[in-house]
Amino acid sequence: MVQKAKILLVDDRPENLLALEAILSALDQTLVRASSGEEALKALLTDDFAVILLDVQMPGMDGFETAAHIKRRERTRDIPIIFLTAINHGPHHTFRGYAAGAVDYISKPFDPWVLRAKVSVFVELYMKNCQLREQAALLRLQLEGNGKAEAGEAKEPAGLLAELSARLAAVEEQAEALSKQLGDESTDAAAVATAAHLERKLTGLRRALDALEPGASGGQAAVN
């Protein structure tokens, strides 16, 4: 069963949170509310999120300050942030949003279809990364199993190795299709870069897996 991704919605106005939930409900993911920057940071302590939709203008800790805290934490620094704002003070204000670490900066009122499409891209990238981590964990188990076999504990690796290869091939196919879709649609540069990073990780994992095949030379490849 595929676990749903979590999307963090941060806005001090309940009606705005309700509107975001209505727009994103079609994605069938887990939507988590936060009514302040402090509440958002608390949620990020315990849960992993695919993307954060962050209102800029909030009382107390505003969106820029909240984003700065998110980017300073190692656990959360790589989570994509989409800023939402009802104010527009020109290029300088937009630049401040990108400088704070946002992958996108959207002014209200926004097109619900556009917002949903942007969020769906980051959800899909998040799911692919989760699959990649799962394959890496299985690979580590295989490597540990090989080490035990060398120490004299009999173990048959062929079955697990074949399963790893098949599951990795499925992820590779999905990642290739996603990258092609992003390229065809000229999506945000940040999403394209994230997809490319995912493909590089998959390539490293495939090399490491190939090195375990009987008769492979060169030893164990590193997974970056």
From TrEMBL:
<feature type="coiled-coil region">
    <location>
        <begin position="161"/>
        <end position="188"/>
    </location>
</feature>
<feature type="domain" description="Response regulatory">
    <location>
        <begin position="6"/>
        <end position="123"/>
    </location>
</feature>
<dbReference type="Pfam" id="PF00072">
    <property type="entry name" value="Response_reg"/>
</dbReference>
<dbReference type="InterPro" id="IPR001789">
    <property type="entry name" value="Sig_transdc_resp-reg_receiver"/>
</dbReference>
<keyword id="KW-0175">Coiled coil</keyword>
<feature type="modified residue" description="4-aspartylphosphate">
    <location>
        <position position="55"/>
    </location>
</feature>
<keyword id="KW-0597">Phosphoprotein</keyword>
<protein>
    <submittedName>
        <fullName>Response regulator</fullName>
    </submittedName>
</protein>
<dbReference type="InterPro" id="IPR011006">
    <property type="entry name" value="CheY-like_superfamily"/>
</dbReference>
<dbReference type="GO" id="GO:0000160">
    <property type="term" value="P:phosphorelay signal transduction system"/>
</dbReference>
<dbReference type="InterPro" id="IPR050595">
    <property type="entry name" value="Bact_response_regulator"/>
</dbReference>
